[in-house]
Write a structure and sequence with these properties.
There is one protein chain. The chain is of the alpha/beta class and 220 residues long. The protein folds into two domains: 80 residues, Methyltransferase, Methionine Synthase (B12-binding Domains), Chain A, domain 1 (Orthogonal Bundle), CATH 1.10.1240.10; 124 residues, Rossmann fold. The chain has nine helices and five strands; from the N terminus they run H-H-H-H-E-H-E-H-E-H-E-H-E-H. Strands 2-1-3-4-5 form a five-stranded parallel sheet, sandwiched between helices. Helix 7 links the parallel strand 3 and strand 4. The chain is elongated, with a radius of gyration of 18 Å. The N and C termini lie far apart (45 Å).
Length: 220
């Protein structure tokens, strides 16, 4: 089997939610000395990208996407130790969580999965997270992005508090802030001084990619 054929089969294994096949093919890539980076980028990641499109087209739903992600991550676990030095240093970092007062985390979990599948390192802070914790963890994790989620109008103001704390501590220019969730709108994001708003998980990934592209000149 050529390397190109192997990439296609790796992608198919992810889309087909076949973790055992993803593991088998990843081991085969290692045995045949296929570049681990290419096997991830052209194989496993491509499969997750296809799964994301199926989600966008409402052919796949959250459970399918989670199983696809499991297959991809199982393959990555085998290939990652074989990456050449430097090939692991390209990932951007973000912290994500549901703002204080809210415990609805399905949307947040989906965004996390899709961001990780798109090459981001994401620190998940969980649910009911105080604004100060977002700032402290973003600094500690050396994040590029702070991603805030809320499904309740009563907790939206706490998102603004995150931006205010960043400004008060003099670190606002170190991070891009993105917000999302049922009651959130672009107008709200603009009003609190966030850098962007994602209507759904797919848009959140596009937004994150756009923000980190513009992030290169930020102070760190």
């Amino acid at each position: 089997m050529s390397a190109e054929e192997l990439y296609v089969k790796l992608a198919d294994a992810v889309v087909d939610m076949d973790e055992a096949e993803a593991v088998k093919l990843s081991n085969q890539a290692v045995e045949e000395k296929v570049e681990a980076y290419d096997a991830i980028d052209k194989g496993l990641a491509k499969g997750m990208e296809r799964a994301g499109k199926l989600f966008e087209e409402e052919e796949y739903f959250v459970p399918e996407l989670i199983i696809c992600s499991d297959a991809m991550n199982a393959g990555i676990a085998i290939l990652k130790p074989h990456l050449k030095q430097g090939e692991t240093a390209i990932r951007h970092r973000g912290v994500i969580g549901v703002i204080e007062g809210d415990t609805h985390d399905i949307g947040k979990n989906l965004v996390k999965i899709m961001l990780e599948s798109s090459g981001f390192d994401i620190l998940d802070l969980g649910r009911d997270v105080p604004p100060q914790t977002f700032v402290d963890k973003a600094i500690e994790y050396n994040a590029d992005l702070i991603l805030l989620s809320s499904l309740m109008t009563t907790t939206m103001d706490a998102m603004a508090d995150v931006v205010k704390i960043l400004e008060k501590q003099g670190v606002r220019n170190q991070f891009k802030v993105a917000v999302g969730g049922g009651p959130i709108s672009k107008a709200f994001a603009d009003r609190i001084g966030a850098d962007g708003y994602g209507k759904n998980a797919t848009e959140a990934v596009r937004l994150a990619q756009s923000l980190v592209s513009a992030n290169q000149g930020l102070v760190k």
